[in-house]
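REVIEWER CHECKLIST
Item 1: Sequence provided? yes
Item 2: Single chain? yes
Item 3: Sequence as submitted:
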Amino acid sequence: MLFGRNSGENAGQLAVQLWLVFCEVDLGGRQMVGLGLQQKLSMVVSRLSRVRILRHQTRVWLVLLIPAAVLVLLLPVQIGSWRPEVPVLLGATVLGVLLARILVRQPSLSEAARLVEQRDQGLHDVVLTAVQMLSQYPPPQTVLAQMTVQDADDLVRQRDWSKVVPAGQILKWSVLSLLSFLLLVSSVTAASHYGRRLLPAGSQAQSTEKGAGPNSEAGQQQLVVEPGDTEVEQGSALTVVARFSGTAPEKAVLEFVGADSATRQISLSETVDAGVFAARMEDVTSSGVYRVLYQQQLSAAGAPQQSRDFQVTVFVRPKLEQIDAEVTPPAWSGRAAETVEDVVRLTVTEGSQVRLQMRLNKPVVQAELRPAEGPAIPLTAASLDGLVVQAQLTALASATWTVHLQDAQGRTPADEQQFSLRVVANKPATIKPTFPARDVNVSPLQEFFVEAAATDDFGLVNAGLEYSLAGGESREVSLLQPTADGAPVTAAQLRQLIDLESLQAAPDDMVTYTFWAEDRAADGSLRRVWSDLLFAEVRRFEEIFREDQQGGQQQQQQQQQQGGQQGQGQQGSQVDNALELQKQIISATWNLIRQFVQLQSAGTLSKDLETLVQSQKQAIDVLQQSLAQGPQQPQISALAEQAVQEMTAAADALSKATTEMTVEQVALALPLEKKVTQTLLRMRAAEFQVRQQQQQQQQGQQSQSQGQQNSASQQQLQQLELDNNRNRYESQQQAQQQEEQQQSQEQREQLQVLNRLKELAQRQQMVNERLKQLESELRTAQTDAEREEIERELKRLRDEQREMLRDADELAERMQQSAESQQPQQQQMQQ
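Item 4: Structure as written out by the authors:
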C-alpha cells in the first residue's frame, strides 16, 4: 500500500528501461530482437538464402540447356557481327540469375530460429520463444518477455551458429552451379559449331536465305583470306588463315602455284575459333599465287568454290656466305704468303697485308666493315656479277668488324656476321745470361766462359757479346750461327771464352760484359737489345778465396787487432760498400740507356735520372766517411781522392743529362762510372779475402803452422764447396717446385682445350656420317617432298659443320696464345 500507484508506475518505467537496453526501436516504432540475437540470426538467414539461390540457379541452367541449344540452331548463322551462340548464352545467363532470385523466398527469423533449434538441442526453444514474442505486434511489455529475450541473447553470445548452414554445403552448391553453367556454355557452343551439319540442307538454306549464292559476288565476300597479297623471305614458311563468316565448309584446301607452274596443295585445318581455318606452307622458294578452295558438302557434286588469287612475292635477304683471306706477311718476317678460306677469325703478323674476299648470295648496293668505334671500311666489287666484294687491310692492331650488307630494297641480313683480326706484334728479341748469370771473380790468366740464351718470335738477325775493361774500349763478338737450310733462327745459345790474358787484364781490374741480339722491327729497320750488365773482378794471385764479401769482412774484423789494424779493417768495409754501390749505379745507368725510349714515353725518365744523381752523391759520401775515420796510408788516400773526383765527374754528367734528356748524354756518364770502379778496386788491393787464422808463434814451428794453415785452407775449401753445392741444390729444388706448379696449371688449361677439341672431333664424325647417309637417301628419293626435306637437313648439317670448324679455329688460336704466354716463363724457369 505504501507503494501504491506510484510504485506501479515506477515498475513500468523500470521495465521499459530494461527493454530498451536489450532491444532496439526502428523508425517505424517496431521493436526488434536484442543486438546479439539479431546478428546471429541475420548470419543464418544470409547463409541459408545463399544456398537456396545457388540450388535454384543450378536447376534453372540445367533446365535451359536444351532450349538454348535448340534456339542456337534455329537462329541465323550470323546476327550482325556476332555468332548466334553469343546472344543465346547471354540471355540464358541473365535468365538463370534472375529466376533463381525471384523463385527463392527470403527465409524469416522464425524459420531461422527453428533451424537453429534443430541443430542445437541445448537451447530448449529459448530462441524460438523469444522470436515468437517479438513477432507479435505490439510486443508484450511484461517482465517475463524481457527475461526471455535476455536469456536468448545470453545464449547467443555463447554459441557458434556458423555450422547451422555449413560452409561445405555452400561450396558444394557453388561448384554445382559453376559446372551447370559450363555445361550450358559448352553445349550451346557445340550445337553452334557441329549441330548445323546434322540439319537437313533445307534448314541450312533457311538460315542463310539472306545470303547470296555460292558463286555470287556476295558469296565471295563471306571469305576473308589472310595475309592476302604478301612478301615472304625465300626458304621461309607462309601461314594462310581463311575466315568464313557464313557456314563453315566441310573441307578447305590451300593451293599454291609457283613461277614454274608447279602446284602444291595443303589441307586447311579448322582452329578453335568457329569458321576459321589455317595452314602453314613450308619452304617457299619462288614467287607465285595462292588461293583457298573449299566445299560446303563433300557429297555435293560440282567443282569446289574458291577465293580470288593472291600474289606471293619471294625476296632474298643479302647474306655473307664465305670469307677468304689472302695474307702477305712483311718481308722482314721471312714468311711466305698464304690464303685462308672460309675464315671468321684470322691471326696475322704485324704489318701484314690482308686482302679479304667475301662471297655474297646476291648483289648489294652497300657493303662495308663496321668497327665498334671509328670509320667503316668500304667493300668494293671484285666480280662483274657483284657476288664477290673485297677490302685491303694493313694489319696494325687487332680489331673486330661487323659485315654490313644492304640491297636495293633496303634489306639487311637477318644476322650480321663478324670478322675478327688478331695482330701478333713483332716483339723485340729477348736475351738472358745463363752462365754465370752473376758477378764473379776471375784471375788475370783465366779464359772466362760465359753463356746466354737469345730468342725472337720471327728470327734473329745477329747476336753476340760485348765486353771491355773498365775505362777501355769495348770489344764486340758475333756468336750467331746460321742454320744449314737458311731457316730463320728463333732461338740460339750464345757461348764465348773471354781471354783475360789477351785483354792484358791486371789484378784489381774490372771486366764488364753484356750480350746483345738483333732482329727486324715492324718497319723493317734493324733493332738491337742488350742483356743486363755483368761484372768480373780480376783478383790478385796472393788473395785467398772466401765465400762472400760480408763473411770475409766479419772474419777480417775478428782477426784484426787494436790500433792501426782496426782502422784499416773499417776502411776496407767502407771501400767495399762504395764499390758495391758503384756497381749498382753502373747497372742502373745501363738499364736506363737500354730503356730510354720506353721511360721517356712513360714520363719517368727525369725521375730516374734524379735518382741516379742522388745515388752517385751518396757513394761520394760513403767514400768520404772512410777518409774521415783517421790517418790513412798515402797510397790509399791518393786513390780515395781520385775516386771522389771521378764520382763527381760522373754525377755532373748525369746532372747534365737531366736537363738535356738525351741518351747520348747519359751514355757519356757510363765510362766515368766504370773508371770509379777501377780506382775503388785499387784501394781494396791490400786486403786479403781470407786472412791467416793463426800467426806464427815460434820460428821453429813455421813449417807446422804452414801445414796447419794449408789444412785449414783445405777444410775451408771443402766447406765452401759443400755450401755452394747445398745452395745450388736448394735453388734447383725451388725452381723445380715452381716449374711443377707452372706445368700443373698449364696442363689443366691444355686438358680443357683438348677435351673441347675431342668433343668437336666426335661431333664432326657424327655429322660426316649423317651427311653421307643423307646424300645416299637423296639419290634414292622418289618424291619432290622427300628431296626437299633431305636438302633442308643437308643445309642444316653443313651450317653446323662450318660452325664447328670456326670453333676449332678459335680453340687453335687459344692454344697459340697460351703457348706464346708460357714460352717466356719456361725460359725463365730454365735459366
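Item 5: Key structural point noted by reviewer: The chain has 17 helices and 29 strands.
Item 6: Recommendation: ____
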